[in-house]
Amino acid sequence: MKKFGVIILIVAALLRVRAGDSSSWQARQAPLMTRWAADVSPSNALPDYPRPQLVRTDWMNLNGLWDYAIAPNSTNNVPAFACKILVPFPLESALSGVMTHLDEQSKLWYHRTISVPDSWHGKRVRLHFGAVDWRCEVWVNGHNVGRHEGGYDRFTFDITDALGWNGAEDIVIAVTDLTDDGDEPRGKQSRKPEGIFYTPTSGIWQTAWLEPVPQVCIDGVKAVPDVDAKSLHVHVVVNNFSDNLQVEAEAFADGQKIASVTGSPNMELILNVPDPHLWSPEDPFLYDLKVTLKDGDKTFDSVSSYFGMRKIALAKDDQGVTRIALNDRFIFQVGVLDQGFWPDGIYTAPTDEAMRSDIEFLKKGGFNLIRKHVKVEPDRWYYWCDKLGMLVWQDMPSANNATSDGRRDFETELLHMIDSLNNHPSIITWVLFNEGWGQYDTEALAAWIKQMDPSRLVDDASGWTDMRVGDLVDMHSYPGPDAPEPDIHRASVLGEYGGFGFIVPGHIWSTNFWGYVMITNRQDLENRYSSMLNQVWKLHKLRGLNAAVYTQNSDVETECNGLQTYDRAVAKISPSVLLAANSGGFWGRSIKVILPNALFGRSEWKYTTKEPTNDWYKTQFDASSWKDGIAGFGTTGTPAIYLNTTWNSSDIWLRQNFTLKAEDIPRIQLQIFHDEDAEIYFNGVLALKLDGYLTDYDEFEASHEALAALHPGENTIAVHCHQTTGGQGIDVGIFSVQ
Questions:
Q1: Span 109-132, average pLDDT
Q2: Which one of 321, 404, 553, 648 is most buried, by most CB atoms within 10 A?
Q3: Coil, strand or helix at 11
Q4: Nearest to 236 by CA among 287, 169, 291
């Protein structure tokens, strides 16, 4: 054994007893702590199985207390370990028990002694890491078992040949992390956090664990649904290419076996799924999948997984507008930006329940989309999106990409991200670049992603530098909202908007807070949000917008524009208000146009600005001498109205005929812009009287008496609007709303 290995063993032997001693550890106090922090301890640090799409029952969780030390990066000598860190919480986090930073001149060392079960003898033992930020080197009993670079991708070392099988195995890990000073992907991490950049993450930040596998074993399962063909494409990766090996894939629905296929490993198999139950946010149905590796009657390995049958694609609607279709059904995606930061765990959620709680909060609020912003989460986060029914746009974490080495790192982690997350039905879009950060070779990289995964959409650049490739044309608009110009080949989306800042005393990270638009009153915040979502739905109906992503799920450090506080203790807007706004009201329902206003088309009215006789609103009145004009009516410069005919006098009277079917009458709604006082009649009966003015189109119910006066066939609407000062306008539409 080399001298370096001897040093490791000596240090490990001295610290073997102390490595499991939890009395020397306690969480630090961050400016904010979540309610789940109280559930975190050395004995239950994220104890959940970390890989829900490739499950084996036999495993060992290595989360818990490790020895740690920080030493100069210039030396490879193992330092003396005198302190404890709680894995998998990053060094900078309160829940690690350390809460300090790692600079570019330093190296973070970990050590732990473990005991491998005797029952694992004869198997291969693998050491797994969900993620370590950034460069990591590992020794087991003094033997170097591997090195990895990358802050967001999981990796594995086979440590079998380094084990002593003597009851005590020593693991030593060395980590360096350049963060701002490097060119590698790092998302929003910064050693000088401020504004839209936050506390960095260094070291182990996802679950570390051991797993025994057979000598001949399943290394991976790739499952891609084909809804049109009612099948699942299954590729089982096996670490042996013997011609005698066979794999069997079995699908189960609600515990009942519904299909199976047998064939050679390392090749694509087609599993037919009869009468597939499709996955969607409204109905997130998941099939169970069991994969077995055999040689004749001998079973080598078996793993369990799951899959969802869903299809995401672009299609033209009846107006020729490019739309996003889920399972061949157009779906408007009402989304939220989620950066995945926690005040006590930084990149690491304190518990599995905390991760789930975020998704449940958004589901209750009527969201069906999360844009996971420049961060890759642990597999269990995506599992909860699959299970609960939440669509995901997955960003590639941003980097400088200023050097060839940096671009190599970016592309390596991009490849690993797509490969490792491939099976999650919740993920429907890969986002390559955010706002031009580190953007390069966009056309080639977007094509590369599409080649790797043709089953999902590609967003080449969310905001800013669109290179007119991929499946989406994406803009950012603060506070907004807005919609990109239509593209015949790509769907129009709003990748970021909103950003209303609101402070909840006692739940802020710092007094140096900010938001895109600061609001001081909760009722005003709810009203502003609801009004903004009304505009979003209008853009969907009228300008072809397919998705809108509000900034953001929760506050993050000094950024206070979350729907929740950073500690997730307070919902700034209640889920019931969010649900009502996100559902779109009038705009979110199926609409049949009976009489269009200027938003929905061109309708010609009879009108006059000279006061008519008193029976002007009655059905039998003759308005043939009135002028003809296209709605809306008003003066240039009046906000929000879609103007076609000038009206600049004090009063205007309007009449129009419209046709109804019997089934339309109970569903009639009016959509109106008025500035100022307006009265509307159906067949001579007052339907609505409105005082004052609006700053946007709004929806109204007609009076019961007016609805009772309607009948199948031809009906009459009559409108009067009176103006006193300022801007002026009137525009009325009639709709049957499902």
A1: 97
A2: 553
A3: helix
A4: 291
Residue 708 sits at the vertex; the CA angle it makes with 704 and 713, to the nearest 5 degrees, is 135
Mean pLDDT of all residues in 80-85: 94
pLDDT in tens, 321-339: 999 999 999 999 999 999 9
- Spatial separation of the C-alpha atoms in residues 527 and 694, rounded to whole Å: 14
The residue that leads in pLDDT, 325 or 695, is 325
C-alpha closest to that of 333 among 442, 467, 426: 426
Backbone φ and ψ of 59, nearest 5°: -165, 165
Mean pLDDT over each residue of the chain, to the nearest integer: 94
CB 82 within 8 A of CB 68: no
User: Which helix (H) or strand (E) element contains residue 224?
Assistant: strand 218-226
Main-chain phi, psi angles of 20, to 5 degrees: -100, 10
Q: Which residues of 328-337 are buried (b: 16+ CB within 10 A; e: fewer)?
A: eeebbbbbbb
* 8 A C-beta contact, residue 383 and residue 427: no
* pLDDT given for residue 167 in this prediction: 85
Q: Which of 591, 200, 580 is nearest to 364 (CA)?
A: 580
d(CA 85, CA 107): 15
Of 685, 702, 690, give the one whose Cα is nearest residue 730: 690
Q: What is each CA distance from 219 to 56, 157, 209, 237, 266, in whole angstroms?
A: 12, 13, 16, 5, 10
Q: Which of 519, 502, 520, 512 is nearest to 561 (CA)?
A: 502
Residues in the chain: 738
Torsion region of 356: left, alpha or beta (phi above 0 gives left; psi -120 to 50 gives alpha)? alpha
pLDDT tens-digit readout, 225-265: 999 999 999 999 999 988 899 999 999 999 999 999 999 99
Whole-number pLDDT of residue 131: 98
pLDDT, residue 181, reads 87
449-480 pLDDT, tens digit per residue, is 999 999 999 999 999 899 999 999 999 999 98
Q: Give the Cβ contact number of residue 29 at 10 Å.
A: 11
For residues 615 and 587, give the distance between their C-alpha atoms in angstroms, rounded to a whole number: 35
Cα–Cα distance for residue pair 662/660, rounded to 1 Å: 7
pLDDT of 20 > 90? The answer is no
Residue 4 has pLDDT above 50, yes or no: no
Letter string b/e over residues 95-109, b meaning 16 or more CB atoms within 10 A of that residue's CB: bbbbbeebeeebbbb
Beta bridge partners of 326: 312, 329
Backbone angles phi, psi at 361, to 5 degrees: -60, -45
| Per-residue confidence band for 22, with pLDDT thresholds at 50, 70 and 90 | low
pLDDT in tens, 400-416: 999 999 999 999 999 99
**Per-residue pLDDT averaged across 18-43, rounded?**
84
The residue among 327, 306, 297 whose CA lies nearest residue 315 is: 327
Give the 3-state secondary structure percentages of the chain, helix then strand then coil, rounded to 5: 15, 35, 45
Write out the two tokens for 80: 């003396």
User: For residue 361, what are the contacts with CB-CB under 8 A and spacing of at least 6?
Assistant: 553, 563, 564, 568, 571, 575
Q: Tokens 């300008």 sit at which residue?
A: 543
What's the CA dihedral at 435, 439, 441, 446 to 10 degrees? Answer: -40
Token reading at 295: 């040689």
Count Cβ neighbours within 10 Å for each residue of 302-313 and write b for 16 or more, e otherwise. Answer: bbbbbbbbbbbb
pLDDT value for 6: 34
C-alpha 529: how far from chain center = 19
